[in-house]
Specification:
Elements (H helix, E strand, L loop, with lengths): L1 H13 L4 H12 L4 H14 L6 H10 L4 H15 L1 H20 L20 H12 L9 H5 L1 H15 L7 H15 L3 H13 L4 H15 L1 H14 L3 H11 L9 E2 L5 E2 L2 E7 L8 E7 L4 E2 L2 E2 L4 E14 L5 E4 L3 E4 L5 E5 L5 E7 L8 E2 L5 H4 L4
Antiparallel strand pairs: 1-3, 2-5, 3-4, 4-11, 6-12, 7-8, 7-9, 7-10, 7-11
Bound molecules: manganese (II) ion.
Amino acid sequence: MKALAIYFAFILAFSFVSPELQAQQAMNKKQGLDMKEQSIVGISALAAVGDWSELPNALNDGLDAGLAINQIKEVLVHLYAYIGFPRSLQGINLFMALLEERKAKGIRDILGKEATAEINNPRNYAYGKKVLETLTGQPEKEPKTGYAAFAPVIDTFLKEHLFADIFGRDILTYTERELATMSALASMGGVEPMLGSHMKIALHLGISEFKLSQLLSLIESKTGKDKADAGRRVLNQISGSAATHKTVDTLINRKDLFAIGAKAPVQNFTGTVWVNMLMQPGNGMNISIGSVRFEPGARSNWHQHPGGQVLLVTGGKGYYQESGKSIRIMQKGDVVQCLPGIEHWHGASPESGVSHIAIVLNSEKGNTIWLRNVTDEEYKRYK
Ligand code: MN
């Protein structure tokens, strides 16, 4: 009975929202992190664990996604408050080297704006306190309690420096700063109470639970499943109830058996495509396995696999085409064989997304060879 009463209260509370607004809200809930935001997550996660071999790739992705030099620089500066000067500085040094490399290749990156001068915006304890209150939506307690009472100087440093000096620099939004912070904390591990505080801030800033789930999927691909799972437990807790556990899992696995992973590289695909690499070749097993989801209208470029590929379609309805043949439908339950060396593409249909497990075979014969994109004209040729 109680559940029923809550149900009707829920219906009532939402019945005053216009259908347009409801549709917009539903869409916002499902909207993922954009490419720039995903890059901030990747950079912060890798810098936090000191993965210096992968960080340059993430920095490169960030520039390719359109982040300005000053924005990426600011992410690395911001991070020092959480990961320490040594890792922040090492990240900055790698970024400088990468920029030189890109310049030598003739890539012209955008510098971006500088922070507004402090003189227009005195950054002191009161300002830092106000910033923190804006982030949390809660008034700061007086008299101080907990660590702030035990070690008042660190409360001063936090307000005067972190929330005033650093957060006061308007190169990144609060949302971007929180994405960087959560990614660093989740990847460092062992600081779950602080990660929880920042997830609450994120929700207050309007970052959806779906985006937080997606952030944790990216953490899983960058710094490991144990880190992501610890973050998921924190997210489940702050979401409030045991029932939420299921909700969050459902969000992560929205349509798929496996986590959606990260967005696929734009140069090889059209539209939004998610890839979660489940297995890489090694230990005498020459196959790779990835879970791939194409959103409606999305598709791969033309390509071929020197050792062949098998697609196990796990959901939705999509297209598969080999060079010189017509497009054929692939849907849940289908097994598609892409024979070695045959040029082909696969993707979603215009009206439905599709998910498949892609097994690339005989990887010793060479990597996937990527070719030109599938034009709209080719894609629309299905009858
Ligand atoms: Mn293929």
